[in-house]
Amino acid sequence: MKYLLYIFFLATISCNNQSKKIDKSVIETNNDIVLKHQIDNSKHYTKKDTVYINTEIGETLKFAKEEFNQIIGKHPEFFEKYPNNPDQLYFNDNDREEFGSEVGQDTYYALYAYFLKQRNGIDKYAQQRKKLIELYSNVNSLFGQIQYGGTYFGHQAMRILGYAEYSIYLLPKEKNEIQKTYDITEQKKLYIKSLRQLIEDESKIDFNTLGKEKEERNKNLNRIVDEIDKLISDNFYLSRTQEFHYGHYEYY
């Protein structure tokens, strides 16, 4: 009997110790969250009364000084040494408060692009940025027309700025950083062919347009593919276009 009581006593101590360990880990996690919001980003604060952010798609965002600085203070992820992609950051507990709506998400991605662009180099990669935005916009337009529109495609127009800027961050900055130096001609042909095949297959089940109207619709869709074909000039643009396509446009 004494032996059984002794075992029970040890088990009780073990459980209590385990509880203490769990509580400690929770405290540490909470401390990490607190520390995240205690990072001093004041060096990024603006002194201007109003901040205007002119985007590559012709949209201008406007922020009052206090609002802009509050965003900087609350979102240290915009200034991380090694940026994550905007989707990962947004859905890591940043999809709330001022960024909780669809328009709020658009703004978050535009701000992400704004801050990362300054680190990447605004003028240095202007040409590459323009090409990526055009590529992603064409992919978005292609699927938007195939699906006969929708709010998602409209919101993507602004979010593409974030996706493009993250791709600039991933862009090999020196020639010796490029590992894939082979000819991409055949891979590119297959990808472009797959887009044209998609148009043909979708046309077979599309009864919203008929006859000559459908023929014209398919021609317009293939013109978008022509633009994508022209813009993909090397393995980097091919890979980033495919990643954007397969990561954001999936329908059954």
What does this structure look like?
This protein has 252 residues and is mainly alpha-helical. The protein has one domain (50-171, 183-248). Helix content is 66%, strand content 4%. It has nine helices and two strands; from the N terminus they run αββαααααααα. Strands 1-2 form a two-stranded antiparallel ribbon. A hairpin with a 5-residue loop joins β1 (50-54) and β2 (60-64). The longest helix is centred in the N-terminal third of the chain and has 37 residues, at 2-38. The radius of gyration is 25 Å and the shape is globular. The termini are far apart. The relative contact order is 0.09.
Furnish the topology, listing elements before pairings.
Elements lengths: L1 H37 L11 E5 L5 E5 H10 L11 H5 L11 H19 L5 H21 L4 H20 L14 H20 L6 H21 L3 H14 L4
Antiparallel strand pairs: 1-2
Helix pairs in contact: 4-6, 5-6, 5-8, 5-9, 7-8
